[in-house]
């Protein structure tokens, strides 16, 4: 496969790179050679779609009390009920019902006894992750979509190689489209240092013959150290995370040097085991050999009071993250506050948001005002008219590129992860989200959302109706590619 064709794939399959649009202009002639392969891929994917979930809540049979796992296994229903009542004393009355519906839809239990720390932007996240790596004793498991060979990527890689040479087992899963522009020598150097690497779904079909599905990507961002501390969210390993976003740095940096706006979390406690399991399953999915026995699952004692649910999705799976989002939106009583980097929702998601606004819920969306992907930017804007007409309030983040994927509903249902509100995340990618239930973490999420609002500009219905015809045309054209974005 030629370099030119690889670059076109980068455009089609990773709408998160602004480079894709430049490559489209400079390699437009390659389309004629790519069309047969593209047509085949479209044909094979034509029957795929998100499930009907508008009436999901009415078809489920939830338990009276959600299942709660602790450090020693499942907590008896009576004790679980008492624990939930204590933890959710100040939370909305419907939180228990939403948690029970969510379990019925996803099959995943709540996990008690965790400490969850919110990390904002690159510097805070990278410092926390590199500190944990430096203290590793046994294992480091890293799963990432982007791993760039830049100043930050080299620092990260050098630290991992140091730990491998010191006797720590380092395993890395990296996506082959997310790292398409990263020289292979970068990974060869890590492999020569003893690090065990798994390239996810190579672009070249002959490198994974018989198991090739180029449209399905591993978009997760996950780091687990010694099986006892984990990090996940939206942050990739790239120099764009070397600085804080413009408004969170006090606005004292030139816009050209402002970092991307993103959110990550640090987790300690029993939930780390569930995150560790998702990494091991992702490694096994590539059928390139199992990981050797290591201390992947050490005893994990309670270290906090946070109740979390770990949801991992994959193509042709059960759409757990999608279902959880829909159920939470449908069950909202007071507020829905969503921050989404790439917003190209399906009709069911749009309708759920509109229905919530029309029943009096405060629905606010923080979406990109500055984007690294023009296609996604304009595709997302094609939904604005319907949302604004229904009473949804839309804000566009200014100056910094938005990459966070978070939500807080009724101040008590929160999620941080890798999942964008778009078809690609819900249908084509491997994604990972952590749901945290309770008002304490919800308060932190609300404060973060308020900070994003201060760095954003609201789009009014009247202003939107007056936008130029050229913008409307771009929105229409971008939505024709909505399935791929």
Structure description:
By secondary structure, the chain is of the alpha/beta class. The chain folds into 3 domains: 43 residues, no CATH class; 226 residues, Endonuclease Chain A (Endonuclease, Chain A, 2-Layer Sandwich); 170 residues, Endonuclease, Chain A (2-Layer Sandwich), CATH 3.30.870.10. 39% of the residues lie in helices and 21% in strands. The protein has 18 helices and 18 strands. The chain has an 18-stranded mixed sheet that branches. Strand 8 and strand 9 form a beta hairpin. The longest helix is centred in the last third of the chain and has 16 residues. The N terminus is likely disordered.
Estimate the strand proportion: 15-25%
Helical content (DSSP H or I, runs of 4+): 25-40%
State the fourth-level CATH superfamily of the largest domain. Endonuclease Chain A
* Radius of gyration from CA coordinates: 22 Å
- Might you state the CATH topology name of the largest domain? Endonuclease, Chain A
How many β strands by DSSP? 18
Number of helices: 18
User: What profile does the largest beta sheet have?
Assistant: 18 strands, mixed
Structural class: alpha/beta
Give average pLDDT, whole number. Answer: 86
CATH class of the largest domain: Alpha Beta
CATH architecture of the largest domain: 2-Layer Sandwich
> What's the shape?
globular
Cα(first) to Cα(last) distance is 23 Å
Task: Tally the structural domains.
Answer: 3
User: Spans with pLDDT under 50 lasting ≥5 residues?
Assistant: 1-47
């Amino acid at each position: 496969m030629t370099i030119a064709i690889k670059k076109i794939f980068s455009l089609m399959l990773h709408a998160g790179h602004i480079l894709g649009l430049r490559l489209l202009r400079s390699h437009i002639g390659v389309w004629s050679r790519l069309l047969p392969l593209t047509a085949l891929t479209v044909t094979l994917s034509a029957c795929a779609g998100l499930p009907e979930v508008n009436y999901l809540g009415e078809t489920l049979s939830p338990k009276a009390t959600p299942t709660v796992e602790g450090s020693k296994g499942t907590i008896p229903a009576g004790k679980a009920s008492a624990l939930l009542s204590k933890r959710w004393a100040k939370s909305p009355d419907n939180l228990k019902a939403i948690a029970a519906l969510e379990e019925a839809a996803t099959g995943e239990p709540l996990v008690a006894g965790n400490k969850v720390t919110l990390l904002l932007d690159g510097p805070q996240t990278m410092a926390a992750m590199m500190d944990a790596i430096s203290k590793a004793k046994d294992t480091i498991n890293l799963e990432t979509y982007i791993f760039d060979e830049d100043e930050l990527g080299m620092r990260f890689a050098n630290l991992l190689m140091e730990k491998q040479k010191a006797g720590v087992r380092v395993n890395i899963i990296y996506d082959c489209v997310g790292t398409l522009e990263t020289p292979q020598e970068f990974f060869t150097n890590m492999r020569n240092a003893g690090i065990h690497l798994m390239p996810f779904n190579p672009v070249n079909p002959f490198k994974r013959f018989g198991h090739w599905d180029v449209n399905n990507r591993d978009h997760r961002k996950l780091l687990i150290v010694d099986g006892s501390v984990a990090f996940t969210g939206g942050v990739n390993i790239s120099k764009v995370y070397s600085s804080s976003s413009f408004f969170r740095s006090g606005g004292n940096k030139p816009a050209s040097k402002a970092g991307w706006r993103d959110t990550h979390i640090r987790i300690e406690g029993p939930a780390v085991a569930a995150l560790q399991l998702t990494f091991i399953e992702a490694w096994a999915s590539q059928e390139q050999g199992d990981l050797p026995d290591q201390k992947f699952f050490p005893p994990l004692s309670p270290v906090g009071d946070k109740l979390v649910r770990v949801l991992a999705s994959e193509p042709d799976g059960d759409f757990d993250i999608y279902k959880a989002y829909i159920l939470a939106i449908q069950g909202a009583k007071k507020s829905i506050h969503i921050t989404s980097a790439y917003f190209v929702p399906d009709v069911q998601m749009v309708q759920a948001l509109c229905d919530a606004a029309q029943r009096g819920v405060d629905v606010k969306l923080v979406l990109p005002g500055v984007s690294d992907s023009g296609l996604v930017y304009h595709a997302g804007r094609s939904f604005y008219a319907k949302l604004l007409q229904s009473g949804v309030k839309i804000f566009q983040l200014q100056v910094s590129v938005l990459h966070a994927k978070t939500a807080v509903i009724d101040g008590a249902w929160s999620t941080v992860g890798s999942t964008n509100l778009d078809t690609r995340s819900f249908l084509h990618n491997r994604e990972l989200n952590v749901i945290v239930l309770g008002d304490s973490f919800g308060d932190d999420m609300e404060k973060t959302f308020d900070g994003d609002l201060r760095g954003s500009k609201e789009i009014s219905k009247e202003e939107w109706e007056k936008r130029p015809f050229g913008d409307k045309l771009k929105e229409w054209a971008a939505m024709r590619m909505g399935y791929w974005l």
